[in-house]
């Protein structure tokens, strides 16, 4: 048996050998070309980064640099022209030392590099040949499973198409469970809100962080929608609210627009979309919080009635008359709303009971239960909202929750951490919604250095800890005519003592006031996009909070050079572990 | 091989003027000398391959890596003076390799990650038959880290490769899809093929 196998191998080896000479030649030529292209791209990136940094200091000194998240797209050139102009300008500058090594003496470095590359290429070719001549006679299924479970997502998708057996092996729930538990999954970033040539293209750009590869997903459903919010949990992304223009379909046009109440769920693994019931109020850029809870998690939603009868404040309030123009008088509306809220509290108590009964049944099935909270955002007339709603996947309904605290202000960021939904306001107030008990708590924390006014802090939760990214002055304090330097820092809130401590400093100068920060397990990803030198650049950074929280750059400038500057405003990101 | 106690080894070393420096000696069976100097008794166990060849290995090495052998020793069914563990599904060549792996990892577990990985890569530089035999042996003896290593190697043969190539490497002659399904897949994901 053994000798037969060896014989087959040998003859195959010989066949491959005879083919191998020409193959090797072809391969080496294509590799040479590919490496050359990669190298030139890498150089360009270095120069661009050098340019970006250089420009930032000029800007903060008040120099004339057109930088920022412009909504107007003045440089609407074609992609190719934009890229070449940037690199031309880049070559005039000498790159400043960054996290990557930059060549000082380029000529000798280049020569050395070629020698090294040629030598390593020969070795890798031999390895490749050896790998190709390996033929497996037979692998038992359980071994195959153990090997396939270790594959990253794109290779797994690939493996599913190899043969029916492999597809069957990799789609069982047990296999997927094993893959989830064995830490073979990696984070994927999904960038929404891309605006191309003036249209909300409905494209989703997905970044496979581990392989540093971009994928593009066409999302018909999101065409024409902008300023929605996204939240991710397990394998799903919830897309909530948003606007779409009424006059010029697809364009980011805020002169006449409609605000959506609709919520849709996107599952990237199956590339499927499904609708869930719409919210009660239409919102754009709502603050979202999502968490997975056990089936018998008690949610109390009947606490809103009493507090709602207070007079509406002008800041962050909603005028009752405009809520429902069909109601004739304020008083009548108040009375009816009181009745409604009483009735709803009764029904919600009933639904609460009903929920518990229902959950007894569903817990036996082991079904997942997801709670999605949406608060704030902008309403149909662009007015800031202070209402909130919660969606329960078990009852498949939205229920209104207590409004934001009285003098809270406009909510600008929120995240779920543990059993609380923390929300931060534009006036630097922190409040938390207790999901279990159904009310808001105002949180008094220790003060921290004043922040740059236009940059609203972003809350992030990772590893059960609460973090905030805030931009503050490290040199000067924003006065015109002085040298000012701002820096973005990562702070952590001690949930016991309510004190803020500085964790780390973000390496990039804060150019994007709409930077998005999302967390996946113990990683925090930062996504910044801004227009500089007529081109939209994106900067992705990541830090590991369980390990010193040092920030690293990932995937520079790969996707946004095609996009309009308004994408910086409309962008929003979700992260999934796939 | 007869058991030598520490004193005997010390005399032997002195007689041959071998100076142990930092525990590393370039000599036959250095692990033997090493362990003797560390003061632990050098218990050896006998493993018998399918070809009836006997291999003598330190008990500590095999017990650390193989769950099966660990269980056998622990429940006292192994008698050090006379018994030998029969491994009928492992041939001599593979058994020697497995012993080599376990021994290296026991003695070099303090090495840095890169060196260990390089050694592992070199160790697995075998043809498909050898890899298969190692896999079966590691599976039978339940050597977790060797199994993980081999799974990882096979995974790397799949990762990043096109479907036609994977089918060739894994000798999949019949993919089981209907011609329509196959055509559909090729149209939908051309970059995978």
UniProtKB/TrEMBL annotation, chain A:
Residue ranges, annotated region (Disordered): 72-94, 298-317
Top-level taxon of the source organism: Eukaryota
InterPro entries: F-box-like_dom_sf, F-box_dom, Kelch-typ_b-propeller, Kelch_1
Residue ranges of every copy of the F-box domain listed in the record: 133-179
Protein name: F-box/kelch-repeat protein At5g42350
Entry's Gene Ontology cellular component terms: SCF ubiquitin ligase complex
Organism: Arachis duranensis (Wild peanut)
CDD domains: F-box_AtFBW1-like (cd22157)
Pfam family, one: F-box
Automatic annotation (TrEMBL), chain B:
Pathway: Protein modification; protein ubiquitination
Family matches, as SMART domains: Skp1
Gene3D superfamilies: Potassium Channel Kv1.1, Chain A (3.30.710.10)
InterPro entries membership: SKP1, SKP1-like, SKP1-like_dim_sf, SKP1/BTB/POZ_sf, Skp1_comp_dimer, Skp1_comp_POZ
Keywords tagged on the record: Ubl conjugation pathway
Gene Ontology BP, a term: jasmonic acid mediated signaling pathway
Family classification: Belongs to the SKP1 family.
Protein name: SKP1-like protein 11
Organism: Arachis duranensis (Wild peanut)
Gene name linked to the record: LOC127739556
């Amino acid at each position: 048996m053994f000798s037969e196998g060896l014989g087959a191998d040998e003859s195959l080896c010989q066949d491959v050998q005879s083919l191998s000479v020409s193959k090797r030649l072809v391969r080496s030529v294509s590799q040479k070309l590919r490496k050359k292209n990669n190298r030139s791209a890498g150089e360009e990136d270095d120069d661009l980064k050098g340019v970006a940094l250089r420009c930032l200091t000029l800007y903060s000194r008040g120099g004339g640099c057109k930088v920022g998240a412009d909504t107007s797209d003045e440089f609407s050139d074609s992609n190719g022209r934009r890229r070449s102009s940037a690199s031309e300008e880049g070559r005039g500058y000498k790159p400043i030392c960054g996290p990557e090594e930059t060549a000082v003496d380029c000529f000798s470095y280049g020569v050395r590099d070629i020698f090294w590359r040629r030598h390593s290429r020969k070795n890798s070719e031999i390895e490749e040949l050896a790998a190709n001549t390996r033929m497996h006679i037979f692998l038992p299924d359980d071994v195959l499973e153990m090997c396939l479970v270790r594959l990253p997502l794109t290779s797994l998708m690939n493996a599913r198409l190899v043969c029916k057996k492999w597809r069957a092996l990799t789609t069982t729930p047990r296999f997927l469970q094993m893959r989830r538990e064995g830490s073979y999954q990696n984070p994927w970033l999904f960038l929404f809100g891309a605006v191309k040539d003036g249209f909300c293209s409905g494209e989703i750009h997905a970044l496979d962080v581990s392989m540093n590869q971009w994928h593009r997903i066409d999302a018909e459903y999101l065409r024409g929608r902008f300023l929605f919010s996204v939240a991710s949990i397990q394998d799903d992304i919830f897309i909530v609210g948003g606007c779409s223009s009424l006059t010029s379909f697809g364009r980011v046009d805020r002169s006449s627009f409609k605000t959506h109440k609709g919520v849709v769920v996107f599952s990237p693994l199956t590339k499927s979309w499904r609708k869930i019931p719409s919210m009660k109020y239409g919102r754009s850029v709502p603050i979202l919080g999502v968490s997975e809870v056990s089936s018998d998690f008690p949610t109390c939603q009947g606490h809103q009635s009493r507090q709602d009868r207070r007079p509406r404040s002008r800041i962050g309030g909603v005028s009752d008359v405009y809520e429902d123009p069909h109601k004739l008088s304020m008083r009548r509306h108040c009375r009816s709303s009181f009745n409604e809220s009483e009735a709803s509290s009764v029904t919600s108590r009933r639904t609460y009971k009903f929920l518990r009964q229902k959950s007894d049944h569903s817990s036996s099935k082991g079904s997942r239960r997801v709670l999605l909270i949406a608060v704030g955002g902008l309403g149909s007339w662009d007015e800031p909202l202070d209402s909130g709603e919660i969606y329960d996947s078990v009852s498949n309904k939205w229920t209104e929750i207590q409004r934001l605290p009285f003098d809270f202000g406009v909510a600008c960021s929120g995240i779920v951490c543990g059993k609380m939904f923390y929300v931060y306001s534009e006036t630097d107030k922190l409040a938390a919604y207790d999901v279990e008990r159904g009310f808001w708590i105002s949180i008094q924390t220790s003060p921290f250095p004043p922040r740059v006014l236009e940059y609203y802090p972003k809350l992030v939760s990772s590893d059960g800890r609460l973090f905030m990214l805030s931009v503050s002055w490290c040199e000067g304090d924003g006065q015109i005519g002085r040298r000012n330097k701002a820096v973005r820092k990562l702070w952590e809130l001690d949930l016991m003592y309510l004190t803020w401590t500085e964790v780390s400093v973000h390496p990039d100068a804060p150019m994007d006031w709409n930077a998005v920060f999302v967390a996946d397990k113990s990683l925090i990803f930062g996504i910044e996009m801004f227009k500089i030198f007529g081109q939209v650049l994106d900067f992705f950074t990541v830090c590991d909070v369980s390990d010193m929280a040092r920030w690293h750059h990932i995937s520079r400038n790969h996707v946004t050079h095609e996009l309009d500057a308004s994408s910086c405003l409309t962008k929003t990101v979700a992260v999934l572990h796939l | 091989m007869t058991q030598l106690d520490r004193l005997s080894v010390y005399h032997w070393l002195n007689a041959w003027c071998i100076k142990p420096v930092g525990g590393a000696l370039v000599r036959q069976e250095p692990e033997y000398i090493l362990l003797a100097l560390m003061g632990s008794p050098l218990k050896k166990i006998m493993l018998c391959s399918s070809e009836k060849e006997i291999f003598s290995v330190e008990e500590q090495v095999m017990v650390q890596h193989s769950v099966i052998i660990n269980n056998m020793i622990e429940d006292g069914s192994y008698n050090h003076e006379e018994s030998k563990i029969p491994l009928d599904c492992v041939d001599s060549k593979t058994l020697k390799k497995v012993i080599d792996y376990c021994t290296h990892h026991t003695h070099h577990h303090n090495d840095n990650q890169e060196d260990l990985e390089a050694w592992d890569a070199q160790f697995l530089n075998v043809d498909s038959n050898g890899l298969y035999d190692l896999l079966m042996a590691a599976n039978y003896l339940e050597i977790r880290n060797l199994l993980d290593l081999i799974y990882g190697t096979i995974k790397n043969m799949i990762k990043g490769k096109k479907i036609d190539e994977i089918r060739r490497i894994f000798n999949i002659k019949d993919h089981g899809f209907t011609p329509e399904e196959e055509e559909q897949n090729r149209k939908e994901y051309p970059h995978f093929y």
